[in-house]
TrEMBL record:
It comes from Cryptosporangium phraense. Residues 8-138, 190-299 form the VOC domain. InterPro entries: Glyas_Bleomycin-R_OHBP_Dase (IPR029068), Glyas_Fos-R_dOase_dom (IPR004360), VOC_core (IPR037523). One of its GO terms (molecular function) is dioxygenase activity. This is Dioxygenase.
Length: 315
């Protein structure tokens, strides 16, 4: 295997300018449930049960954010503005993660840090446009118990991947119990996708295949779609002049959920930026309090199309 080769994109971690305001938006409108809070680093974790978090929010900071035992989670200079902190990719097991760490180090790739989050263990790396990526394996028997045992505390410290033999068991949830936020406008099931603007498509595709270990599902002149080992379209790359996150996508159960959600969004007076309807998918796009675009989508039966900057929500 070359590179990390994750199963899928599993979470998005955002820097937000006002943690309370964004938490209200992502719970009350977007329907994600707060499952853990880490006040020491001004962070909130949200999930509907698919994983220990499908979304994390961390308030912007002019300085460092330091976790357990002095572990620097956000180094000085990062996290000063709202936007993407990182994309979180789910590995099959700790053994797969440790093997991949050795592979990418062998390729000469410098990892930014390796971390024990207790719920997971992680390696972090920057892509060619300095987009920050996390490749993690679940580490807890039950993340709810780990969270309960750490209420209000810092949860993250350093991790030496070679300190002990790696655990080969798969700890991700095969068929999670999905929860619903009562009274929320939308009812997402999981984080499904992210779209990045990249400065150099060839360089980005080379990185995401060689280091990321993703497969190319579609490739055009100005864009590409890549996926993890589950074969889903996790990541869209679009050529542009302002690299970074374009938008991310949360999946809904079905078209009825989408239609009912759209009605509740409109009734709540929340502006809808865009609606997409094609054989490939149906979706609506909202804008969060910091201007980050969030898509709520239901996949259709139609074939995957080739993306381009003129239609960022086509995938
Ligand atoms: Fe993360």
């Amino acid at each position: 295997m070359t590179g990390f080769g994750p199963r899928r994109l599993a979470h998005v971690n955002l820097f937000v300018s006002d943690l309370e305001r964004s938490t209200a938006f992502y719970t009350e409108v977007c329907g994600l449930d707060v499952v853990f809070e880490e006040p020491g680093i001004s962070a909130v974790f949200l999930s509907n049960g698919t994983s220990h978090h499908d979304l994390a929010l961390m308030e912007v900071t002019p300085g460092e954010r330091v976790g357990r035992d002095g572990h620097v989670q956000v180094s000085r200079g990062r996290g000063r503005r709202a936007g993407l902190n990182h994309l979180g990719w789910e590995m099959a097991s700790e053994a797969a993660l440790v093997e991949a760490i050795h592979d990418v180090r062998g390729q000469g790739v410098k990892l930014h840090r390796t971390v024990d989050h207790q719920i997971s263990r992680s390696a972090y790396v920057f892509d060619p446009d300095e987009v920050y990526l996390e490749f993690y394996c679940d580490a807890a028997e039950d993340w709810r118990v780990t969270y309960a045992n750490n209420t209000g505390q810092l949860i993250t410290g350093s991790w030496d991947p070679d300190a002990a033999p790696a655990d080969a068991s798969a700890r991700y949830a095969e068929s999670p119990t999905i929860t619903v936020v009562e009274d929320a406008a939308l009812r997402p099931v999981r984080t499904a996708r992210a779209s990045l603007i990249v400065s150099d498509l060839d360089a980005a595709v080379a990185f995401y295949t060689g280091v990321g270990g993703l497969s190319v599902l579609r490739r055009g002149e100005a864009g590409a779609v890549l996926g993890g080992s589950l074969g889903l379209p996790d990541l869209t790359l679009l050529v542009g002049t302002n690299p970074g996150l374009d938008h991310f996508g949360l999946e809904l159960r079905d078209a009825v959920e989408l239609a009912e959600g759209l009605a509740r969004v409109r009734a709540a007076g929340v502006p809808v930026l865009h609606e997409e309807s094609s054989p490939y998918k149906q979706s609506l796009v909202l804008v969060d309090p910091d201007g980050i675009r969030v898509e709520f989508l239901v996949p259709g039966e139609g074939a995957l199309v080739t993306p381009g900057p003129e239609s960022p929500f086509a995938i």
